[in-house]
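Hi R.,

Here's the chain you asked about this morning:
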Amino acid sequence: MKNSEKLLEAIGDVRGDLVPAPDREYPRSSRIYTVVGSICAALLIAGGGVLLYRSRGDKPDVRPESSVQQTDTTAGTSATQQTSQTTQITTQTEPPVIQPKEVIPLWQGMPDAADSDPKSGTDKITAARIDSGGAGLSGNIAVRSTDELNSAIPWEAAAACETLPVYWCIGTNGSYPPVYLTEEQMTEIGARAATALSVKVQTKQVQRIGDLTRDSADDRPYRVTLQCGDVTVEAAGDGEVDVTFKGGVQIPAEYQLPAEPTAEQEQAYLMWCAEQFADLLQMKAPAGYSVHSRNDSGALNAEYYLYDKADTPAQTLLNSTVRNVRITTENGSVQRLFILNPLIAAEYIGDYPIITEDEAKKQLTAQEQVTEADIAAVSLVYWYNVHQQGILPYYRFSVKADDNVLLADGLTAYAYCYVPAVREEFLEAEPAHPVQ
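And the predicted structure, written out as tokens:
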């Protein structure tokens, strides 16, 4: 029996793409499989990248539309604003958004679970299992060599620790979207982002749970959208900030990436991004990595991430995997920044003992659908998803998939299996949440 058939038999039928948002692109599209005792599931991420440090640079070349004049509105009504080109904009800003005059870090002054005093974790925690794809072709990625599976995420030092911190997402209860930050907090975060980008907020829109559920009585806000000329800033209830540049921020020719970039070229590009968006990201020691995979014909699909290197291995691992910034590019320009910080909407549970890489590998191979020879790479990451409340460390294993996958010559398919790193006596399995 082929490896993917054995995996599928162990997991059972599972569903499609992970958590499709109702009206926006999500920072990641992943396949996730977890192992808790006899439970096996898998997460699709790929690795390969670079480490960099930042020097300050110029701000993004994005200019506000100064011809639009802000008009105040009264409660319960909307107003239009007229540009010199007679373009009308409907505003829902009440009261008008007040931007800070100076650049302020996005989450400054807001409780952050990462700042909690250390303590030992004693309560059992759930390791959520999300059915999200299947162990066959839909759960595979293709690479030319196992080197492309090796992640530049800085995990080895964290894996050497005896304990790692675990967090609980307060605003997530197994359904989308998470609700935690208030409208005022989301507005303040968005206004700070606008100031950092040197653009002026023109309109504000609040999206509420009732807009999704058609329950007009549920007016809890889950996202605030600020329109700032050619820049759109969205602040979500779990601390995520999405910034979209209409027309993009042009990447200078010397930092453009070819179809098959070298590590040095990727490093130069990430360095440029760190400098270009320094005021917005406010990172003390920026570092970056790329995620590589290939399509069936062998063309490279690369994603690029920035994170803030911290003082401890645990915090660096957290920052690189769940408190990072994903950069999307198109036609030689930066189109979008996804800035994640779920610890703003979480509480610290405690530091928990973790298992070793070898112990995790034994758990995986004990399932009888994976052999040690099938495993090509391993790393340690934190995982966060809106359908689970725990933010835990997991060992990620790259497992060879079917030999008969229809791929171009020279490509090999792999699936990714995740094993919780917290010791099993502190875990309790949680039933799978069906993907909506």
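Residues 394 and 420 are 4 Å apart (CA to CA).

Let me know if you need anything else.
M.
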